[in-house]
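Re: the 959-residue chain
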Amino acid sequence: MSPARTVASRSDVTPPDRTLAATLEAVLAAAGGAPAQVAVDELTRAAVAPDASHVLLVPQAVVRASSADQVAALLRHASATGTPVTFRAGGTSLSGQAGGTGLLVDVRRGFRRVEPSSDGRTVLVGPGATVAAVNARLARFGRRLGPDPASEGAATVGGVIADNSSGMACGTHANAYRTLTHLTFVLPSGTVVDTRAPDADERLAATEPALHAGLARLRATVAGDPELRAEVERQYRGKNTMGYGLNSFLDHERPVDVLAHLMVGSEGTLGFVAEATFETVPIPPLAATGFVVLDSLDAATRLLPALVATGAATVELLDAASLRVVGADPHGRGLVDPAAVRDHAALLVEYRADDPADLAARLRAADEALAAAGAPPLDPTSDPDRRALLWHLRKGLYAAVAGARRPGTVALLEDVAVPVERLAETCAGLQGLFARHGYDDAVIFGHAKDGNIHFLLTEDLTDPEGVRRQGRFVEDLVDLVLGAGGTLKAEHGTGRVMAPFVERQFGPRLYAVMREIKALVDPSGVLNPGVLLTDDPQAHLRHLKATPRVEAEVDRCVECGYCEPVCPSRDLTLTPRQRIAVRRARAAARAAGDDALDRRLARAEVYQSVQTCAVDGLCATACPVLIDTGDLVRRLRAERAPAAVDAVSAVAARHWAGITRAASAALDVAHALPATLPRTATDVARAALGSEVVPRWTPDLPGGGSRRAAGGAPDERTAGPAAAPAEPRAVLFAACVGAMFGSEGSGATAAVRALAARAGVPMAEVAGADGLCCGTPWKSKGLRRGYAVAARATVAALLEASRGGELPVVCDASSCTEGLRHAIEAEGASGLRVVDAVTFAADELVPRLAVPRRLGSLALHPTCSSVRLGTVEALRAVAGACAEHVEVPEGAGCCAFAGDRGMLHPELTASATAAEAAAVRAGSFDAYASCNRTCEIGLARATGRPYRHVLEILESLTR
């Protein structure tokens, strides 16, 4: 095989097949239910093709079905026509099982059902719900799902079932296979099987007689043959996600139950899981975590049996290379000195318990085990922040290594498992393989309690020698792991990258059983062909993902998909991962000389990627390599902005006071006119000048706000008692959003002034505030000249008002607080301190205020800025001073109003707020609060409820 043919080019995007789209739309429409979406355009297919693995296949069509009936119709059509089908949920898969060349069925949008039982002991879940979303619903019961993958924020339940995922603590006792109670799934024939039905087995026998009989026969063969039974028991004594779960034949008797459990870990090759019911596990209320560094890998692994015997919930192993990475992290320098690391290794150990006495006993046992081995003490901590830091350092290994890789290379994260007693020699053998094959940057870490090792290395898969090296390494790896009696995949699924080695691990007889399972269930072979089973001994070296360099802002992207659940445009256009995938597809097209494809993608990219990105930065909070895709989008907007517009933006920045007053007056005038007039006027202007230039007026927009400059007669409703002038303790910077957009209450600026006066906390104000702005309106649009003017003037004024940084600057809108910090950084004024008004209120005002009455309940919306600023807990604290019960509704995230983005593209805000709005409307609250005026407008529009700044509510309660 020529290595040059193994690399999949991102430019391999065939022209759209409109006939296929029409056929699929007709098939899905005939099945009824909510409309399904079929996309065959080049941009969508290029955008969704990559998953987290180093494999890449571009589909012919992307289908977003909304019901099991639609999937059944689609599978009947695919089986009849021989069309390959791959199911995609979170796309966090690492073994190449979430991509295909035929139909890619995206189930994230239509299958997000989460229904806990009345006591939370079981939960019914759709495959599109993330693990984190399910656990959020279970938290009030003190329970969670058993599987606990590190990717829980993005990994969906469908993927967890498909790969039989586990994680840090669940081992094999609480994984998807063991905690599953019922399953509803669709077979390639279109048959829907619901194991909750008392006669489910009889129904399967009636509708699929050959399949039912074949499973019964295979069960008798495996369970009745002592040699096969013994080998199956050996294979599944620990974590094992290679091949089909043949332990189903030993654990279950009825063919329907065998089939349901074969679905677990089948990676979409046997059917589609439409719903699953799981037993949940309790969350112990107490935990203590410790980190101990040992002299060698051998010493660390020798300790494992003793520590496991003490009841440790997790024992994570870090090799010497991992320790150097931890020590290089600023947060880890007090834990590890990277210069002092030689052959060391470390164990991160956590204990969990229901009561203090139990936890103390476990920790004493750990101390005794460590002392007996001559090891350093564990020094455990129960402090939540310290524990979070330790886990951040462990989970950050992936980010540190992947983020530091050379541009153009791919991060390969693999996992294997061996008996714990063979772990030390296996780790040493792995280190030898790294040295032999030249993978100097590789690290080893993993779930040592289960003998489960992860290792990460980087490779340039566009280099034929790199592909050959990877092939040689994998062959040696297979020999090493199987020689130790282990499994080649413990958690991440077989996929394409280990499919050629399933027979080598299980032997020809059990492999033949797997082949027969596939033939019985999917006789047409349409479900995920090439995944899990293959006839190609070189399948693991085909369709390898090239990662061309594109832009410095995003070249570190490993396409893991962690960013997608927090992206406000995820259900409308593209996610950050998909935006980057399109940029890479365009680069590949240019490299291949296909300028026509590049131009077509560029045209489609304008709306799908550039215009509908909220540039809210939440992607960076979820990204393991800290990419803010908004940085890329802002630069693309800057490149598209005409020079004349950029020049005008600078003029606007210099005359900002007049512009804000004019905008406020225009909103007041608009409300005084019949609604059709201003709406029609803005629609006409948008048609003439463009939807990116003119905002759309709608009746739900508020009237204009008040001037920001302090002075004049105090408002008797909001003012505190008169006080003699005093030395200010902070400087108030009133955000311009409050001057443009009015509020139903006093407004955030007036609220801060009144609360500070009542608390006896004197505040100065910024001279000329009416003409100042943090610069975010210009920065988000890529208007560099306007941003520079605004930032420079504002920072200069803040320096003067704060006495060169002596006083903190308090801002009354969270997005503007963040904007001021960026402006200060841009101007190099490091001495200035900016504090969000919510944090200032929580720390300085609330403790000094009497709140004579409190509301019963309050719905709270943390903004994307408050998440990035780390002020969410302060926001909760202030809200807690206002109401007995504070609830962040399910589905809360960025509202995507993004300054004026919600007026330029209201469909973006509607999509971003849909889940949260449904939760708010389903509840009953006495008040609705956030911490940024435009976000409050967006939430009010979406929910029909009156959102106000939380400080306005607090002010009204303290009068």
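Residues 711-724 have pLDDT under 50 and may be disordered.
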